[in-house]
Amino acid sequence: MRPPDGQVYRFDPGALCLELLATGGPGAFARFETLHAPADLLAWTAQSRIGPCPGLTATERELAAVRELRDALFLFTADHAHGRPWDPRHLELLNDAAAAPPLAARIEADGSRAWAPGATATGLLSTVARDAVDLFTGPHASRVRECAAHDCFLLFVDTSRPGRRRWCAMERCGNRAKARTHRATKA
Questions:
Q1: DSSP character for 171?
Q2: Any bridge partners for residue 156, and if so which?
Q3: CA–CA distance, 123 with 77 (Å, rounded to integer)
Q4: Rg, Å, the chain Cα set
């Protein structure tokens, strides 16, 4: 992650769909927008769990659809993490995106995973939406959380064995909380 304060740190949200949430968001989170042009979406894809997807195309219209789903998924995930009821509009948008054909995976001769030719941002969107469906209907649905820091709103799925992850990243919010606690006990 590269937040505006300049501190670079590793953040693993635990699911592809949650990786997309770190590219911006609705309302006040729009200031973190990183998907300004189709090329930005292609760059994000290469850095995400999807990995490089040579030949992936994205139009401005598809990029707008990705941002729309991301914003709905952000609110949907936050509602889920806090035990609030899901907004039917967000659920409908998620299900509509998941209904489209996803990216098609294949195995290369060297044993690595690749994506079939003709990949589009619509297929990418479907792949992300299907990942969200799997997450929210699967065994880790109850482990979707928001970072416990008062000024951090990153969402993640806790895949740790004990299921007690509280922070987006120990090297950022976890360390800050420990430092505050340490200063408070010394004072």
A1: I
A2: 145
A3: 21
A4: 17
Give strand pairing partners of 11.
none
CA–CA separation, 80 and 99 (whole Å): 21
The 3-state DSSP class for residue 105 equals strand
Distance CA 112, CA 50 (A): 12
Residue tagged 């200063």 (tokens)? 183
> Helices H, strands E: what count in the chain?
6, 4
**What are 143-153's pLDDT values in tens digits?**
999 998 888 88
- Pairing assessment for the beta strands 105-107 and 113-115 based on DSSP bridges: antiparallel
Residues 6 or more apart in contact with residue 129 via CB below 8 angstroms: 17, 69, 73, 94, 95, 97, 98
Model pTM above 0.70: yes
